[in-house]
Amino acid sequence: MLRVGLTGGIASGKSTVAAMLESLGAHLVDSDVLARQVVAPGSEGLKEIEDAFGPGVVGPGGALDRAALRQVVFNDAAKREELNNIVHPKIRALAAKALERLAVANPAGVAVVDVPLLFEVGWSGGYDCTVVVYVPPAMQIKRLMARDGVDETAAEAALRAQLPIEDKRRRADFLVDNSGSVAETRKQVKELWVRLKGLAASTDSRKNTDPS
Prior knowledge:
This protein is of the alpha/beta class and 212 residues long. The protein is built from nine helices and five strands. The chain has helices at 14-24, 31-38, 44-53, 66-73, 77-105, 137-148, 152-160, 165-171, 182-209, and strands spanning 2-8, 27-30, 110-114, 129-134, 174-177. The chain has a five-stranded parallel beta sheet, with helices on both faces.
């Protein structure tokens, strides 16, 4: 199975591209879904977060108060790293288990793992190739302001909390430029899918003929 790490910048349209790949036949592993499992009420992850940041980050119903946690870590790099050290290993473990199951079920398939901070947390080496969904920084800010209803200062701060999109673009094996129309993006994704299927087929063929 070909393991693909999909990432991008905030408001770049990564989820849109992930959905397009899934519609073409990719197996999608969404790290945001896994992240919610990691901090579900009663989970070990939520307990560790409460121990680290205090009871104020847990709501009265026992669920994580994401807004409260965001206020705690957003402008504090040390606390943000502490949070990442709690949740990211657990998310990665769940993703690895999902990939193991998919590899057994469909050895010649393509599994796309949607990871917003793929390069930031050092996961890119765990995949056969990486795909970055790209839009220019100015467009990121404009889209983020429209999507989340924030001002330009807040949007710029959100971008600074991630690796610059231009850096991600240079590190990508494949690029999807999402700065144009939906039709233009879909065309690129279809072309990407053909290449990923070809890589998956060659990877499976090598495994089947490897004497080891």
